[in-house]
Design brief:
Number of helices: 4
Mean pLDDT: 81
Largest sheet: 6 strands, mixed
Structural class: alpha+beta
Oligomer: single chain
Radius of gyration: 20 Å
Distance between the termini: 26 Å
Low-confidence stretches: 88-94
Strand content: 25-35%
Length: 193
């Protein structure tokens, strides 16, 4: 697909990739700098060994002795990770069930967030088929939000609509999420989530 940004900075899906989703990022080919411009990806992971796979890809995304420090996934994958962490009888014990919660989880000392906008039941980017859910590992040291200094923030005057009794203003803002080191992040697509 053609880039919507002339610099080729079109969001997390293109940034956290190894060339399967996008052959370039920021106008630079994924193979130009060996694996340094490629993220850690597994687009066809099995849900049966989710913790082993998650640990392995998390370690592979280590850069300069830093691993991803925030994880994001959908509700189904979050539930699968919780189930793999606790024995089946853990939920029979009321104290354990209350302590485990279900709204938050810390993985390798960092938060795992549930995001309802994360893909669930989608085809694998590498296979083109299947029913997968995504888990994303982000290293905040190597992700920046850049704001254009010439178009930081502007608001138009209030405008009256022509066909109804409403008024509105337009807000102009120009910024972009930039990943200066794709190898410090990972994307994992797990079957069944």
């Amino acid at each position: 697909t053609p880039s919507i940004n002339p610099k080729g900075l079109d969001g997390i899906a293109e940034a956290v990739d190894n060339g399967t989703v996008s052959g370039t990022y920021a106008g630079i080919g994924r193979t130009q700098f060996s694996t340094k411009w490629q993220s850690q990806v597994n687009y066809a992971a099995s849900s049966t060994s989710i913790l082993n796979t998650l640990h392995a890809i998390d370690l592979a995304a280590s850069v300069d002795n830093q691993r991803p420090d925030a994880y994001f996934t959908n509700v189904l994958a979050f539930g699968g990770i919780i189930e793999s962490l606790f024995a089946q009888d853990a939920y029979i014990q009321p104290e354990m069930a209350r302590a485990a919660g279900g709204n938050d989880l810390v993985f390798n000392g960092n938060p795992l967030y549930i995001d309802n906008h994360f893909p669930t039941g989608v085809a694998s980017p590498s296979l083109g088929t299947g029913s997968y859910g995504q888990i994303l590992g982000i290293n905040s040291t190597y992700i920046k939000y850049i704001i254009n200094p010439k178009a930081k923030f502007a608001v138009t005057d209030w405008i009256a609509a022509q066909n109804n009794a409403t008024t509105f203003a337009r807000i102009f803002f120009r910024g972009n999420l930039v990943v200066p080191r794709p190898a410090a992040h990972f994307s994992l697509f797990v079957s069944g989530y």
